[in-house]
Amino acid sequence: MTTPVQRRAEEEAEGRRQIVKVCHRMYERGLIAGTDGNVSVRLTGGRILITPSGVHKGDLQQQDLVITDRQGQPVGGKRRPSSEILMHLLCYQVREDVGAVVHAHPVNAVALALAGVSLANCVLPESCLSLGFILTAPYTTPGTEEVPRALRDLVTRADAVLLDRHGSLTVGPNLTVAYNRLESVEHTARITLAARTLGPVSPLGERQVEQLRQVARKYGWADIPHGCEECNACPNGHLERQTDPEALAARVDQAVDRFLRS
After folding, report:
1. Is 145 a residue of the active site?
2. What is the pTM of this model?
3. pLDDT, tens digit, for every residue of 180-214?
4. Which of 12, 84, 186, 229 is the catalytic position?
5. Is residue 72 a contact partner of residue 52, using CB atoms and an 8 Å limit?
6. Residue in 71, 79, 87, 23 with CA at minimum distance from that of residue 53
7. What CATH number does the domain containing 80 carry?
8. Which among 59, 166, 63, 196 has a CA at the least distance from the CA of 106?
9. In this structure, what DSSP letter does residue 52 have?
10. Domain that includes residue 177, residue range
11. What domain count does the chain have?
């Protein structure tokens, strides 16, 4: 029988393997360049395993990764944690269901955001089923407290968010899901960009979205939210998770302030 200490060691070792694998894949597929991007997983005991600052993700090794506490303070590893750790801490703070966070710079998705084209509309049925909707956060200065403050409402309503001029943020219960959502975001962006060069692109209608919602329920998949941002196909308003917004904002502000004071 394994002990709690052994289980923690096994969990950490598996997290290291997965993060390195995902970072190499992101680089090979052009979803990041050089030292861009950052990846983390949540470990037991409130610890976070995250990529370091300033390391080329195509060359990343397991020993390069950093372990922090829930305030982002390093407790293991020789390097500094990613300068974007605040957005990772935010996701874990406000979403108990999130076990991994992936931040990347997918070219087509970023290009559409730069051009002011939203990916929130339900256009592709596969995207609706796998992602729900993709929101876009306003521009913020990378590596500052502006980022989590701008994201805190969006990440409670979506598993994939575009950061204007900055990249994408995808979350999931584990790293496989979070990474797969990144690929889905970029695939949706590529198709949307290609389609828009040929003519106008209309979202799915309310009836079509409801049929997809029924398919999701039938197979036990995540429900497709009502009221996609900037989409007139559904009349039901924006999705809200069961979280008091004022309490949520206070929790995030406290976490950011603690990190900045430490």
Report:
1. no
2. 0.82
3. 999 999 999 999 899 988 988 887 777 887 888 78
4. 84
5. no
6. 79
7. 3.40.225.10
8. 166
9. B
10. 4-261
11. 1
